[in-house]
Amino acid sequence: MGDFRMPSLGADMERGQLIEWLVKVGDPVHRGDIVAVVETPKSTVEVECFETGTVAELVVEEGQTVPVGAVLAHIGEPVQGRAAPVREVPVAATPAPVVATPAPVTVTPAPVAKVAPEPARAKVAPPTPARRLSPVLRHLAHELGVDPTTLRGTGPDGTLTRHDLEEAAAAHAHTHRARVSPLARRLAAEAGVDLARVVGTG
């Protein structure tokens, strides 16, 4: 281990004041490195180190005045495998997350199926006069040879009456008698045929 001492910076220099240390304990130094600033009566001088090693102790504090040859610092053995100072790497700012805005969704309403109008219900025709006949009148119409569906009743709501059937039978018989020839009338009488019940084809 070596010592770093106050050097003689002139023939008439007896003392020097340590103005500033340029190293600190633990720093590696090499022969020829500037390690301190010393003020003499004539000037301020940067002082270099004459040893190679590691600064073990700073003996003299800044601002003190010491004679030439006084020990200013102790220099120890170099530290093997000393790691190089780590340089701080600036960390890039993390960009703010980008929030994706969803595209607007256009909803097209489904076409409404047209409902076909309900077909009009067929009106039920009122029952014919024949359906309004009582069993007695229906039998009478059959006996008189009258078709009740061709008649218009004079009763309530167009109901056929006995009078309607008898008038229709009389009118039918009169019409047929008017059209029967004398020969046909004689033949009908001989055969016992009621001409009122016979419909002519001539």
Automatic annotation (TrEMBL):
One of its GO terms (biological process) is pyruvate decarboxylation to acetyl-CoA. GO terms for cellular component: pyruvate dehydrogenase complex. Residues 132-169, 179-202 form the Peripheral subunit-binding (PSBD) domain. GO terms for molecular function: acyltransferase activity. InterPro entries: 2-oxoA_DH_lipoyl-BS, Biotin_lipoyl, E2/Pdx1, E3-bd_dom_sf, PSBD, Single_hybrid_motif. Keywords: Lipoyl. CDD domains: lipoyl_domain (cd06849). Residues 1-76 form the Lipoyl-binding domain. It holds the Pfam family E3_binding. The keyword Oxidoreductase does not apply. Belongs to the 2-oxoacid dehydrogenase family. This is Dehydrogenase. The lineage of its organism: Bacteria, Bacillati, Actinomycetota, Actinomycetes, Micrococcales.
